[in-house]
Sequence to fold (208 residues):
Amino acid sequence: MSKVVILNHPLINHKMAKIRDKRTGTKEFRESVSEVGGLITYEITRDFTTRPIIVETPICETTAYELDKHVVIVPILRAGLGMVEGIHNMIPTAKIGHIGLYRDEETLEPQVYYQKFPKDIIDGVVLVVDPMLATAGSACKAIEILKAHGATDIRYVGLVGCPEGVSRLQKEHPDVPIYLAAMDSHLNEVGYIVPGLGDCGDRLFGTK
Ligand code: PRP
Ligand code: URA
Fold:
């Protein structure tokens, strides 16, 4: 069974309050989603290995440590884009792939419309980024595609999950750890997370 980490950190909770509030406008919503992406990165990278390097400080030579893995950030379009800048600011050497998926509004099944990945997905750590883990149809499909392209070390990174989505993702991809800012109550009858934050893509891009 894959690991599930719910951040539940005061700084993240503070920003999540803004993100959840329906009065929050597009600019502040977008900035806060990106900031939570940055804060979550601290936890996602906790077990990353490093290699020693020798650097010279203004005082003397010393051993310092740098990341020794390639990292690839793969946002699920559109809403995943909102978290990319925050994560990329923390790991500026990361490459970025893209998966275009949307949920069919009737069936809630994911429809794939775009995919483009850097070669590093094969030997690097791949962060699949999507703020909303609802039915998990989108996350499972994205991970299936990445595995078919050779990715073996995949982590899912989101803002809000629910028990239904987490258990499906754990069942279909037990090797993929799940990192979320918050775990909500349930899915409603039209597949939205309750209490959630509404339609993340629309709120990020002002499309409704
Ligand atoms: C939203 C969200 C996820 C998906 C989650 O995307 O960004 O990708 O729904 O739902 P699921 O877990 O039930 O698959 P949406 O389909 O609304 O597309 P968008 O990001 O382009 O708005
Ligand atoms: N997608 C969203 O944007 N919000 C939800 O609550 C569920 C799926």
About this structure: The pocket of PRP (ligand 1) is lined by residues 76-79, 102-103, 108, 110, 130-139, 165, 191, 199-201 (CB under 6 Å). The two ends are 38 Å apart (CA to CA).
